[in-house]
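INTERNAL AUDIT FORM
Audit reference: QA-55
Scope: verify that the stored structure record matches its stored sequence.
Auditor: D.O.
Record contents follow.
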Amino acid sequence: MSSSTDFLGRPIVAVTGIGLVSSLGEGVEANWTALTAGRSGIHAITRFATDNLKTRIAGTVDFMDVSPITGIGLSYALAQSAGLEAVRMAGYNSDFPGPLFLAAPPIELEWQHRFLLDALPGKAREEAGYDRLMELVRQNRDADMYALTLFSGISERLADRLGTRGLPVTLSTACASGASAIQLGVEAIRRGETDRAIAIGTDGSVGAEALIRFSLLSALSTQNDKPERASKPFSKDRDGFVIAEGAAALVLESLASAKARGAKVLGVVHGCGEKADDFHRTRSKPDGSPIIATIRKGLEDAGLVPEDIGYVNAHGTSTPENDRMEAGGLMAVFGEHMRHVPISSNKSMIGHTLTAAGAIEAVFSLLTMRDGTLPPTINHDVPDPAIPLDTVANVKRDADVAAVLSNSFGFGGQNVSLVLGREPRG
């Protein structure tokens, strides 16, 4: 085994550039400063009317220059900002010499465009049900409207902007999407298909319809009076997640390539574990077996044991079931040792950024190791006695961490655990 290969003889995958946007701000350092200070980016929604909605708060990104704001347009703008920051940090000022793996939200016509279809000449305005919507779409020959339905549209524009190589890949695996994009990049490098890749997770899709859908699932917090205190991962009084927006990008590169060009290595991806949960569309399997298997696979792929992990960046959504299932899965894998491993949830401050979450939390995990600082889980004033974990409650903590487990568990489907390291092993 050389210094640039892992215990299985595979290329070690380094991270040489990162980029970040969230409700806390634009840029890696602005976000990290706010996060470690325990500042919340969650606020009352002003972008659209929230009258009669049960949830009127979110971690929306309201400072990007996007007009008119659409989920597609904002998701692209967020991805572009994070992507450009990452490739420049990695030392590329023009075309990026590798493929793009993009995690993006599902694409569909938004209400403003549905209303335009429903107002076509000669059409009586009526309830815009799905069958009628499909009929109107078939009748409409507007190329711009058609472009709004292309799932690959964001990645194609982004590939042109970043100058990436080959056909860009777009994926959407719910809340695990950002981590899935990183996993695809890691696997491509390990297979020898490329020396480098850029993985981006983005989501700018907060709208009234999204709020209504998640509210119907009883998944969102309704603690509207104090938005900054609504997201309470692992607390007894948690009542749901806070939907949010953001993007993160990671330039992944074989360690040999990074060393050859003198690039600064920000960390490495030791391992990736994934497991699907087919129990229910939104609920986890009651015995927690998919979550347990995901964490175990991540550690196994990394060649590490639970005692090697110094910190867990939790999925930690603040929903009653998810937090309990994640804690149970960790205890099953780590045993009593888990009581001594610090764990925190970035979502307590930035909310749940859905398809971007796995990528954003991977960036924060790298920064944790870089600075030896564990970000807090804020709003943790009423601990849940059923979750006996060290949650880094409310205030950041100094710690020397060499390996981090970053969890991303998708709504009733894909689960991914990334194992990130501060430096190559061996």
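Auditor finding: record pair retrieved intact. The mean pLDDT is 91.
Action required: none
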